[in-house]
Amino acid sequence: MELSSSFTHLPKISDISFSSSFTHLPKISDISFSSSFSPIPIQIHLKTPKISKNFGVFAVAIDPQELPQNSPQRLLKELAERKKITSPKKKVPPKRFILRPPLDDKKLAQRFLNSPQLSLKQFPLLSSCLPSSRLNNVDKTWIDEYLLEAKQALGYPLEPSDSFGDDNPAKQFDTLLYLAFQHPSCERTNSRHVKAGHSRLWFLGQYVLELAFCEYFLQRYPRESPAPLRERVFALIGKRNLPKWIKAASLQNLVFPYDDMDKLVRKDREPPVKSVFWALFGAIYLCFGMPEVYRVLFEVFGMDPEAEDCQPKLRRQLEDVDYVSVEFEGNKLSWQDVAAYKPPEDALFAHPRLFRACVPPGMHRFRGNIWDYDSRPQVMRTLGYPLAMSDRIPDITEARNIELGLGLQLCFMHPSKYKFEHPRFCYERLEYVGQKIQDLVMAERLLMKHLDAPGKWLQERHRRLLMNKFCGRYLRDKHLHHFIAYSEQVQDAFEHNRRLRNPATTAVQQAIHGLSYTAYGKPDVRRIMFEVFDFEQIQPKAV
């Protein structure tokens, strides 16, 4: 009998001799193999058909040219063989890939009609930020337990907001305040309507905060350039400092009901706090408007713009020899001045003080220059300016149009032209306010347009629509970049090098948004962005 080529052919069982790894034993039943053999059963082909019934051989066939016993290649081969024989476990696809049958038209229509998002016709933005389905008993339990504590900390009356009339946006404050505290790490975030409602609020709230601080600091520091202003904002509402403000208002137990906030590591502490902080200001803005945002920031959270750790880093300042408007001269405006300010009835602009903070009075020296005669009429024609206004006195209309023309000239005035002698004679401050109002207007547009979209998706869409290269591209599509006033030394470089030109066109685009906001208000920013420049890219293109 021959087991395989490595075994010796012997006629009798008793005379079988094995290789050196076998132990010679008199009985078959006592034969033991060493542990180096694989447990995988391998078929053995026997040449002699007649074998006694009690004889069974368990062995591994070995090639004559096989690798040594302990070599890694051999072990890898054995592993490969073993994997072939053991059947792999079937993987269940994750739930999100299992398709559900679509809702039929009747159910879908019913779901939309029952959604609170379609309940307020007179407040479309507020309505779009309500939860997509009605609050259930678990939501109401949280409201019963914690809402009074939140309201007391923020300084609001404790009675339910349902007592307000239907024409008052504050009626929805309880619902939005509940959503604001349901950050992604808390237990209620598995409910779709809560998760999406919270993320939509923080998506809006971040731009509300940026615009609030932008307007406040531009008026408080009328001579500063935007760089130190941005540093001040970051020092107040950068994510590293937000836990400090939440703790100052005693809201940490609502954000972390089961943990001590001070003992959490930064990566566990900061994202939930940032999410709640932004969503909170989204809710306050929707229900009470911008003055209330200032009150909560400076009264409830106790932010101090003059604090030592909120000051910008020291830098070489250009000497500012130009005048500022009379209302800013010699006094720093407080947050109460900004929050309570109402423009007079015969004011030239929607936000006259913000306009004065961005367009210095000395701009009048440029009236009647070449740009004013040559470029201004073409720019105003493209932008649809001046808008028709019903003024009682014709002189007011004329004064507004003159100021608007000077503001437009400032929008197209590149820093290389006059900035080193006159630091505020460039578009930088208008660009700063334009960036912030552009972000907020686009955020509101997306919220009202995509009712069922979560905040993360809206954030990505917002970023793609407002990417800097696109903003500059819309201006270039209208051929307005030819009117930018550069200094003679850099004019050729900027006109023939797109890496220099494109950021400049982006800045001019944003400065135009800032001017339209200060002069005519938010509706005109919408007109400029979505009708004149087509930021959403939905208008038909000329063939």
Automatic annotation (TrEMBL):
Endpoints of the signal sequence: none
Pfam families: Ribonuclease_3 (PF00636)
Name of the protein: RNase III domain-containing protein
Keyword tRNA-binding: no
InterPro entries assigned to the protein according to its UniProt record, in alphabetical order: RNase_III_dom (IPR000999), RNase_III_sf (IPR036389)
Record keywords: RNA-binding
Organism domain of life: Eukaryota
KW RNA-binding (keyword) present: yes
Naturally occurring in which organism (per UniProt): Hevea brasiliensis (Para rubber tree)
Residue stretches making up the RNase III domain: 176-289
